Amino acid sequence: MNNTLLRKLMRQRKITQEQMADRLGIDRSTFSRKINTETGKGFCLREASEIGHALGLTPVQMADVFFDL
Prior knowledge:
The chain is 67% helix and 0% strand. The protein is mainly alpha-helical and 69 residues long. It is globular.
């Protein structure tokens, strides 16, 4: 996952970690752990899809954020 890009896109759209966590139905600290981890458990498919929808990401942007291609 490209957490740097995800943070940048969230800043551009003025969406905080707390707002995104609320939208996902998870605690802010859980969101923070998921976005800050380099290995281990990241976002599940449902969460990634919801993040993409909230940020208005294209399929290419989704791949750039969530897949190491």
